[in-house]
Amino acid sequence: MSTKEKTSEEVLLEEEVLTQNEIVLHNDDVNTFDHVIETLMYACDHGAEQAEQCAILVHYKGKCTVKTGLYDDLKPRCSMLLEAGLSAEIV
């Protein structure tokens, strides 16, 4: 008969927690659909269809998340939206 030894190893895993933030675009009565669509395509790298869908959601729902990601990526994008006269915030 042979004896088998069991060894137990404790492995510690260090996970980096990445916090996802969102840019939320709010409705206003000032900007046109075309302006909002063009700005989303430029600032958030949306395709035409995605930008149009977001503009429609903002119009009918009052707000829409237009981009998610790390804060450092979203900050300049949100600034571009604000500079274009849109109402947006990072949450």
UniProtKB/TrEMBL annotation:
<protein>
    <submittedName>
        <fullName>Clp protease ClpS</fullName>
    </submittedName>
</protein>
<dbReference type="GO" id="GO:0008233">
    <property type="term" value="F:peptidase activity"/>
</dbReference>
<keyword id="KW-0645">Protease</keyword>
<dbReference type="InterPro" id="IPR014719">
    <property type="entry name" value="Ribosomal_bL12_C/ClpS-like"/>
</dbReference>
<feature type="domain" description="Adaptor protein ClpS core">
    <location>
        <begin position="22"/>
        <end position="83"/>
    </location>
</feature>
<dbReference type="GO" id="GO:0006508">
    <property type="term" value="P:proteolysis"/>
</dbReference>
<keyword id="KW-0378">Hydrolase</keyword>
<dbReference type="Pfam" id="PF02617">
    <property type="entry name" value="ClpS"/>
</dbReference>
<dbReference type="InterPro" id="IPR003769">
    <property type="entry name" value="ClpS_core"/>
</dbReference>
<dbReference type="GO" id="GO:0030163">
    <property type="term" value="P:protein catabolic process"/>
</dbReference>
